[in-house]
């Protein structure tokens, strides 16, 4: 019987020969459409093995076409109404306008990224960003790579390959997205020498572990969680002193890239300037967390150590692209001139609840009176991106009462414009801290489309089609786990 049903599944070629398929192939390209049809048919075939009849050809074709056009379209801009400022699944930090323009310029043109224009000779990649970084932090030297994970990998491979790296058991953390400190350490060829316990590690534990083979002392800021209660960690300054006595490099991975402590930053969030002052030889951090820049990993500290890092083959493997570099230069120069207000992440972190409230008010008015269940409510935003765990920012948003919160949130995501929300207690919440003024009318439009709940969307959402990126809705996640790394 099952065999009969399977015979009803059409062939890829038969579907590709149809008129609509040929027209679609002329815009989307035949290889992509063919591949998506193959995927759809494989699914239908396995359902047929269980006795399920295949849907009509038009439905199969529409399904493949939907997937092909999403793939051909590529990434789409989305409105982040989750209230998670550094939402890793949504690309972390939106760039300031000036940086975005620099990216476009660098993208279209040749640039002097690795050449000294005066001599015409090859120069180091990223000289301007490094100059700005040393000026901003007071460090001897700086180096920019693809991301902070790459910075750690490069530093450990260069300075500690085949040697033990001393780390506290309380700092063997997973940052998210499969990125774990012990794994990156192993990948670098260094050996893990764990000391202390999960909640308490003393300087004596480090001292006892140091041998003449030790390659590095590593301190990692447990950026996405907090151990509270009966805890102890030696101050970075003590680790620096111990490392200096034994002539071992001390690397402090602070992760989030807070340059200096300012208003509203928790006292236990380490800053770059603190880490240097405490005597770290190298400090690593991401450019797309609290710095508000593009994806990049920054290493600052002793010039002699950085010189060794630059010469290691992994440096080439993790080098930064020119578009990222163009954006980073602008962000650093914005900070250097005290114009942080231009940086969206700074704006979102510092904006007063009153201003967020007026934006929520505007959103609710723009959505309009027809939606009785749309109310301006108080809520809480999160920093995300593995920064400032446990810190919540008082915020305001619009709460929408709908019969089925998760499916409404899914329609918001898959619509055009696409918007990401939070589902709390069955309500859909649009947190206005992470929304810009210019996005308000688009967000209101997205809400209207989602309310109309047209069948095409329903089909998409309930028919097992992907929700772009899969892995569930980060906004729905009560602990916002997906927003970490
Ligand atoms: C986020 C983070 C990283 C990883 O940074 P990426 O730029 O995402 O590679 C490493 N270490 C710490 C402490 C972090 O917070």
Could you outline the blueprint of secondary structure elements for this entry?
Elements: H1 2-7, H2 12-17, H3 19-28, H4 30-49, H5 57-73, E1 78-80, E2 84-86, H6 97-108, H7 127-137, E3 141-145, H8 148-160, E4 164-168, E5 174-176, E6 179-180, H9 181-187, E7 191-195, H10 203-209, E8 216-220, H11 236-245, E9 250-255, H12 272-277, E10 282-286, E11 297-301, H13 303-311, H14 313-317, H15 322-336, H16 344-350, H17 353-367, E12 374-384, E13 392-400, H18 405-414, E14 418-420, E15 422-424, E16 427-431, H19 440-452, H20 455-462
Parallel strand pairs: 1-14, 2-12, 4-7, 4-8, 8-9, 9-10
Antiparallel strand pairs: 3-11, 5-6, 10-11, 12-13, 13-16, 15-16
Helix pairs in contact: 3-4, 3-5, 4-5, 6-15, 7-15, 17-19, 18-19, 18-20
The structure holds pyridoxal-5'-phosphate.
Describe this structure as you would to a colleague.
This protein is of the alpha/beta class and 485 residues long. It folds into 3 domains: 65 residues; 152 residues, Aspartate Aminotransferase, domain 1 (Alpha-Beta Complex); 246 residues, Type I PLP-dependent aspartate aminotransferase-like (Major domain) (Aspartate Aminotransferase, domain 2, 3-Layer(aba) Sandwich), CATH 3.40.640. 43% of the residues lie in helices and 16% in strands. It has 20 helices and 16 strands. It has a 7-stranded mixed beta sheet with strand order 3-11-10-9-8-4-7, with helices on both faces. Strands 2-12-13-16-15 form a 5-stranded mixed beta sheet. It is globular. The protein starts with a helix and ends in a 23-residue tail after the last helix. The structure holds pyridoxal-5'-phosphate. The site of pyridoxal-5'-phosphate has 14 residues, from helix 8 and strand 9.
